[in-house]
Structure formats: structure tokens, C-alpha cells
Amino acid sequence: MSRVIPLHPESGCSDAPVLRERGQREVFCGLTGIVWLHRKIQDAFFLVVGSRTCAHLLQSAAGVMIFAEPRFATAIIDERDLAGIADAQDEIDRVVGQLLSRRPEIKLLFLVGSCPSEVIKLDLAKAAQRLSQRLLLAPGPKVRVLSYSGSGIETTFTQGEDACLAALVPEMPVALLQNATPSLLIVGVLADVVEDQFIRLFAAMGLGPVQFFPPRRAGAMPAVGPATRMLLAQPFLADTARALEARGAQRLEAPFPLGAEGTERWLQAAADAFQVDPLRFEQAVAPARQRARHAVAVQRPRLAGKRIFFFPDSQLELPLARFLSRELGMVLTEVGTPYLHRAHLASELALLPVGTFLSEGQHVDQQLDRCRAQAPDLVVCGLGLANPLEAEGLTTKWAIELVFSPIQGFEQAGDLAELFARPLLRREKLAGAGPATALAA
């Protein structure tokens, strides 16, 4: 079932109609978020309670770690668990005991729910609470145990990060009112190199203190309270933002830091909230902004005027569409997103070209029909759709690569543009090759 709902307010696509679709979906599950989460929180471990399929997904998505053990694993639900021969809670305790005896450096353990564990109603929240109480009181290293759902039954894959961070919010210290110096909290997983770049920019602006959530170490949770001002680094953190706002944090409205324009406006929102002198702000961002604009301009001749279609996948679609349209001159034929959070995306909607076709949710057959009818130059979609569409002659870009790659900030703007130029370049090379050469490629 599909229906059009209006969006309200001011400019761009703020009041554009949105096609809401409900039907068959083509998405990864939230377990995929572990791939970047385990790299960020360096003393955390993610134990998925699921099936062999869950284990294969993580292994194929994360690749094989040769020189270091990854900080995730799967406790596989087998026939004994399903038949009730073994007590599932006892089995979880046993597996966790084995894990911690092998990996004593772990400080934070996540029990991650999956489709199978949710179908059999396995209470991982109860298990996490019981284990945490026991392990925090036990002699030796202290381990906190939390749980969240990475199930793909009702969610898309980036919501695994949202669920994980929302589970972490209750662990954040309370910022005391008597020490109510305003502080800035950047919310969302960023690659360490991107985080370091933002730290340098905020320091050059004289803005601080600035903290990042999640932190790199589990014991360095930032405090949060009414004096906290937060900037979302990702558009898919609805539950996390709601939990932080319940603790008193105030969200700063801004586009997301993709491309030169998005990054500048994102930083400007923080500068305005902390009353940074405009001249100092300009001096701090001007060199990096100029480098970003130059790097993006290199890719513009290949992308300008090209038509692009977004299937709903990661919730990054609107910020990416704004970047591609405004900075690279691409034509948006349809911008689909799994969930359109009106408040968090208000600045993005206002910057999209008037008349942009927006859709929320997924009915994959109907979207495929629209995509074929549009015959765009580039299609951004999930892995499950990419190969069939390539076989039909369409050029595709894997949406998941845009989540796995560091794309935020000034220094990554050129790399982000190149990610969209690369499939078109590949298509040009294949089209220019003879049949035998193309087959060999």
C-alpha cells in the first residue's frame, strides 16, 4: 500500500509531497553495524546471539581479520536451544564465561539480538542485567554487559548503530547543573581520522569542550545534561537522539557534514550556538573548505547533468542527494529513504531542489518499475539489487560502501564525490572496450 503525505514548511523540498510505501524490502539487518561499531569502541565486544546465517553475514561483511582477532562473534542457536533441551540463559552464561576467559581485556560486552533470538523470545535484556551485576561485583577486571537488537525484521541496517548507542545512553554520567558550562557532544560513529579532523577544526574555532559519542574507550563516556548541545553526525540516530534529549541535551539543527557545503553548515551550527566570532570561524574553516571545493570540482565534469536514482537503504540518501545536486550538478530522479525523520532532516529538505521526488519506505517491485522507466545514469542501491540492475544495463553504486567509508568532513569531500564518479568511469571503460576485452575485464 502506498500513499502520499505532505511535508510542511518553508523552502526547497520542505513542503514537497512524500510517497510513503509499504511492501517487500531489500535491506541488510542491523547486525551489519557491528562492522564499524567494533572498530570505534576499542575495548568493547559484540556477541551476537543468532544463527549460522548471522555468523556468515558478519564474516562476509567484515572480511577476514588476519593480524588481529575481531571483537565480535556469534553464539549460535542450535537445535538443543530451539527444542528447549538446553536452558538458553545458562548457555549464554557459559558462552560469556568462555569469551571473557579468552579475552580478559574486554570492558564492555554487548549481547546483540538477532531475528532468530527474537523469534524464540530470548530475553537478552534479562541476561545482560544478570551478567553485568555478577561481573561488576566479581574480583578482577570489571565488565559491563548491555544488550540491543540488531534484528532485521523491522529495521534497516544502519539502525543497528542507533540501537547500540541508545543502549549506551543510560551509562553516560550526569552533567551536574552547578557546573553547567555548555559543552558540545558529537553523536554518531565517525572514523578516527575524521574525528581527529573535527577536533582540530573545533580547536581552531576556540570551541569547547567537545566530546564524541560513542567514545573510543568504554570508560570515557561523556557526561550529558541540560547544558549539553549535540550535533548529530548521522541521520539515522532517532532513538539515540530521543534518549539524549530525555537527559536534557539540546539538538542543534544542521545539515549533515557531507561535502564542503554540508560540513561548513554543520560546523556553523555549532559556532552559532557557542557564539564563535565570525572572523575566527572563517579563519578556522577557510583552508579546509577551499581544499574540499577544489577536490569536489575535479569530479564535477563527469557527474554534472547525470541523472541519479536512490533506492531506500541507509537513511543517508537525503544528505547525499543534497551534496550531489548542489555541489556536483547531478539531477535527482527519485530519492528514496527507509525512514524520513522530518525534524532531523529539516535542513536537508530545505536545500534539495524544488520538485525532487521523495519516497519513504520500500515497495521494491514498484520502485524497480519507476527506476527502469526513468533509466537513470546511476542507481544507488543495496547489494541484492545491484547485480540484476547491472545485467539490465543500468550503472549502480553500492549503498553500503557509503556507510563503510569515511565520507564526513572537508577532507573526505573529494573522496565522496569520487565514489559516485567511479561506477560511471567503469561503465565508460567497458563501453569503449571491444567485446573480448570487456569480457576479460
How would you describe this protein?
The chain has 441 residues and is an alpha/beta fold. It is 46% helix and 17% strand. The chain contains 18 helices and 15 strands. It has helices at 34-40, 52-62, 79-83, 88-102, 115-119, 124-137, 159-168, 192-205, 238-246, 259-273, 278-303, 317-328, 346-351, 364-374, 383-391, 399-404, 413-432, 435-440, and strands at 2-6, 17-22, 44-50, 72-76, 108-113, 144-149, 183-187, 210-213, 228-232, 250-251, 307-310, 331-337, 358-362, 378-381, 396-398. A seven-stranded mixed beta sheet has the order 1-2-13-12-11-14-15, sandwiched between helices. A four-stranded parallel beta sheet has the order 4-3-5-6, sandwiched between helices. It has a four-stranded parallel beta sheet with strand order 8-7-9-10, with helices on both faces. Helix 15 links the parallel strand 14 and strand 15 (396-398). The relative contact order is 0.13.
Topology of this structure?
Layout: E1 2-6, E2 17-22, H1 34-40, E3 44-50, H2 52-62, E4 72-76, H3 79-83, H4 88-102, E5 108-113, H5 115-119, H6 124-137, E6 144-149, H7 159-168, E7 183-187, H8 192-205, E8 210-213, E9 228-232, H9 238-246, E10 250-251, H10 259-273, H11 278-303, E11 307-310, H12 317-328, E12 331-337, H13 346-351, E13 358-362, H14 364-374, E14 378-381, H15 383-391, E15 396-398, H16 399-404, H17 413-432, H18 435-440
Parallel strand pairs: 2-13, 3-4, 3-5, 5-6, 7-8, 7-9, 9-10, 11-12, 11-14, 12-13, 14-15
Antiparallel strand pairs: 1-2
Helix pairs in contact: 7-9, 8-11, 10-11, 11-17
